[in-house]
Amino acid sequence: MQYKYFICLLISMVSLWSCNQAQDSKTTSEQDQLAGNRIFISINGDTLAPVQKSEEEWKAELDAQAYNVLREAGTERAFTGKYWDNKKQGIYTCAGCGLPLFSSDTKFKSGTGWPSFWEPIRPEHVLLKEDKAFGMARTEVLCARCGGHQGHVFDDGPKPTGLRYCINSVSLDFVEGAKMKGEKP
Questions:
Q1: Is 94 one of the annotated active-site residues of the chain?
Q2: Would you kindly state where each structural domain of the chain is located, as residue ranges?
C-alpha cells in the first residue's frame, strides 16, 4: 500500500515540475517577445529599457484595481475611469512603466465608457495578442515595455485607421500638455 502511495506522490511531483517548467518557459518567451527588437521612446525622446519585475514587485507598487487590470487582465467598469471623458490635450502613458502609448490627438468619443483611441503613439509601444477568454475572440492590447494589460482593440473605429483601442483608465496616466519630442506644438 505504501508503495502505491509513493508512486502516486512521485507522479504528482513530476507533473507539477513539468507544469512549472512550461510556465517558466512561457514567461520567458513572453518577456523576450516584449523586449524583442522594439525601441521604446519616452516623451522627451530618450530611449527606455524594457521593464521586467516579479509579481511581488508589481503587487507592492500598484493598488488592487491597477494590479487586477494591468497584471491580471481585468477590466474596470464602464463610465467609472478617470479618463473616459477627459478632453484635455496631452499624452497617455502606461500606469505601470510610464511608456507613452496614446495621444489626446487620436482620442475620440466612442460611447463605450472607456477611453478610446484610433492609433497608438508608436506601433512598437503596444503589443497585440490574441485573447480567447470568456468564449470571445478579441485582440488584447499590452504595453510592449512592461506587458501591462491596457484593454482591447476592435475594428469599429473612425477613419483614418478604422480601429478603436478601448483602454482602461486605470492602465493609464496622463501628462497634460505633453507632446512627444519632435511633434509640432
A1: no
A2: 1-35, 37-176
